[in-house]
Amino acid sequence: MADRPSPRALPDELPQEEAVTRYRRHAEIPGWHQDALTGATAVVVGVGALGTETARLLAQAGVGRLVLCDPDDVDESNLSRGALFTPADVGRPKAEAAAAALTALVPGVRAEARHAELSAGVGLAELRSADLVLSCLDSIAARVSLTRRCALVGAGLLDAGTHPWGGEVRHYVPGGACFGCGLTPAERETADDPWSCARPVAVASHGASAPVSALTAAWLTTTALRVLFGLTEPAAITRVEPVPGTAYRLAAERDPDCPLHERIEPESVTRTPVAAVDRVGELLALVAADEIALSWNPFGTPPPTTIRLRDAAPDATLASLRVAPRELIPVVVPGDPARTRYLELAAEGEGNR
Predict the structure, then answer these.
(1) pLDDT tens track, the chain, 353 positions
(2) Of 180, 202, 272, 339, which is most buried by a Cβ count within 10 Å?
(3) Class of 7-251 per CATH?
(4) Segments making up each domain of the chain, as ranges
């Protein structure tokens, strides 16, 4: 909870009387603090069966701002499991369809759609300042990517997944064990990241159903709300097994050899007035002649591609080069890694425009 968005970035509050009426049953729950939810921001990465149900539960609980990130479009197979999708949404970006459904379902919630992969959809500064980051992904590679980015800025992570008749919820805190700690070196390099439900990659998969997704999402959301309320919630892995009727916790142990714990030191970050919607040239004006500003994502028409922003047209927008909102842009000096620094992009509307 390092740096919340400014008040103008938060949703309009419901009229007091309506808010009291809507959430009056919550007031009867020990430890529940509705005010802690109204100004909270949750980033939900992966907006499929698990992600839509999680987002719905967070919104109905009263979380004020949801950032929904997914590069995929709604497929007919999603209609049997996605809580926020209708037949009219087939072919529409999942994040956009889910955001529209949430704003209709829960007046006052601010649901922002990011139709992009994680590294192009949610900037590192957004992960750092979010009150919650929730992983509802369906591949090892995507989880490794999110884990690495959260570690860079010291963000905790709540991760969940399902198997045919059950699910798992994993709570990782900054400085502790991470998802990668439970993987072998080979597993950390797994390329199993499907970009579409309509055209998955050829890897082993398993069935999924709405009931199991809903059960796992409910457990994940309950854990998330307790974290927001500051209630005791251990860093652990919880397995939920409906068939035997059990749920149990396993300790998450940090692997000292896990390479996913690299951290960007706060003192190496400089805030800028440039936003992702601004032009490359405006950012490069902040870079010295002997420095090179880099993108986290390659751009250009392959072959070849590049990550050097000076190779882009100066009037191209950063967003058009797959630079995420509020990203931290690495700036390096060849041969002198000690001089590496980061330029933090401003939020849209707070930059040069």
Answers:
(1) 444 433 333 445 556 567 678 888 998 899 999 999 999 999 999 999 999 999 999 999 999 999 999 999 999 999 998 889 999 999 999 999 999 999 999 989 999 999 999 999 999 999 999 999 999 998 999 999 999 999 999 999 999 999 999 999 999 999 999 999 999 999 998 875 554 555 444 444 566 789 999 999 999 999 999 999 999 889 999 999 999 999 999 999 999 999 999 999 999 999 999 999 999 999 999 999 999 999 999 998 777 799 999 999 999 999 999 999 999 999 999 999 999 999 999 998 775 54
(2) 180
(3) alpha beta
(4) 7-251, 265-346
Q: pTM to 2 decimals?
A: 0.90
Length of the chain (residues)? 353
Q: 3-class SS at 342?
A: strand
328, β-bridge pairs:
344
